[in-house]
Amino acid sequence: MPRISLATRSSLVALTLAAFLGISDWLIAGQSAAPARSKADDQSTSQPKAQQDSTKTKSKAKGKAGRSSKARTRRDPPGFYMGREIAPVMSWEGVDWLFRQTRIEQEEPEAMLNALKIPRGATVADVGAGAGYHSIPLARRVGPKGTVLATDLQPEMLRMLQANARTAGVTNIKPIRCTQTDPRLPEGMVDLVLMVDVYHE
Ligand SMILES: C[S@@+](CC[C@H](N)C(=O)[O-])C[C@H]1O[C@@H](n2cnc3c(N)ncnc32)[C@H](O)[C@@H]1O
């Protein structure tokens, strides 16, 4: 019979115990259960309360730096990404929320766009543009020789975006109805992609 060292024997005992407890996957992948999304994390989203509640994560499995993407993928149940629940799409019916007065002090949109140093003439994609809260100032920044490709899943959002652009006198926004799997952006044509309050969806 082959000799088994004390260390190997200890590992085998640990793995057997882990398998018994149903945590062997976790042990092998070197993962640890991180705390669920904090309250502050939830509050950072600019969605209405009702929607924030539905986006709260129910999983305690959260990423730990350095672990393999294979392990990460394996542990995400359907509807989750990197341990966080994918939020439902914010309905166009809640559009007023996107234009609330407090948004300026909460998010400082002008400072954000200034920091991006968007050149005139650029082609910028505003992915998940909603009703154009950022698309319109972006369109002004890129100027008449530039373009804003404003994509959204919801046709109602895009219709409101077009109406808002008309009111603002902006003519260089191209609305694009995309899908969840196809952003419908022209390949090799985009200088910058902006996603605000979209990634979690
Ligand atoms: C909370 S709103 C934010 C709108 C805009 N970015 C803003 O800051 O005012 C999120 C928008 O993203 C859109 N959206 C969600 N998932 C998307 C996806 N996979 N591709 C494009 N748009 C998406 C929704 O339809 C919704 O209009």
Query: What does the radius of gyration come to?
Result: 23 Å
CATH superfamily of the largest domain: Vaccinia Virus protein VP39
The helix/strand series, from N terminus to C terminus, equals HHHHHEEHHEHEHEE
CATH architecture of the largest domain: 3-Layer(aba) Sandwich
Kindly report the spatial arrangement of strands forming the biggest sheet: 5-4-3-6
Total strands: the figure is 6
Helix count equals 9
- Main pleated-sheet profile: 4 strands, parallel
Into how many domains do the coordinates divide?
3
| Small-molecule components bound | S-adenosylmethionine
State the distance separating the first and last CA atoms: 57 Å
- Silhouette: globular
Strand content: 5-15%
Instruction: Provide the CATH topology of the largest domain.
Output: Rossmann fold
Fraction of helical residues: 25-40%
Low-confidence parts, pLDDT < 50 over ≥5 residues?
1-46, 48-66
Name the structural class.
alpha/beta
What is the C-level CATH assignment of the largest domain? Alpha Beta
Q: Estimate the mean pLDDT confidence.
A: 76
List the defining traits of the structure above:
single chain; 201 residues; alpha/beta; Rossmann fold; 3 domains; 4-stranded parallel sheet; two-stranded antiparallel ribbon; 9 helices; 11% strand; globular; disordered N terminus; binds S-adenosylmethionine
